[in-house]
Amino acid sequence: MEDxxxxxxxxxxxxxxxxALGIVAVFxxxxxxxxxxxxxxxxxxxxxxxxxxxKLYALMSLQFYYVAISVYGWYNWLKGxxxxxxxxxxxxxxxxxxxxxxxxxxxxxxxxxxxxxTDSVVPFWDGFATALCFVASWMLSHKYLQHWLMxxxxxxxxxxxxxxxxxxxxxxxxxxxxFMAIIGYFQWKKQVTTELSE
Length: 198
What we know:
Elements: E1 4-6, E2 9-11, H1 13-30, H2 36-53, H3 57-82, H4 93-117, H5 123-141, H6 147-164, H7 168-197
Antiparallel strand pairs: 1-2
Helix pairs in contact: 1-2, 1-7, 2-3, 3-5, 4-5, 5-6, 6-7
């Protein structure tokens, strides 16, 4: 699909569509709607192609993970509704340690792989953003409030990576996602506070 020039900037229509679809999906994520999951699957499938052509291989591999974790998350959220156990959860101190150790290990693995075996143009940042997204997606599938904090950092890092690769619709997409993640965190936190006070 050929790029379209808008105000002198080349825009890929497929990338613009995927970005718009992703924003709609995250709106449903903030609202805790099941529609998030199928929309996120479609967005991820489109981004597999986009990231492959942009040589962002770790972020491309992340999209395959998104498809799998979205099926798992969709199932978990459905099961939670059926069992009347779909409340937002909080990480314990011990769980935070496991999360941060997992994040560190994934970052190292992704960076070393990208640096040694691919022509990735930003191996550390590509690997770090991908590790953050792996962890955040797992946390989201279990409805942990703090997944939003991971998304905020991941979205900020990713925005810089995409801008450096001239993926302008995706850059805008991730700027929007950063603000949506901040809103999502405070909305979910408010719900947790309300539930704890009941």
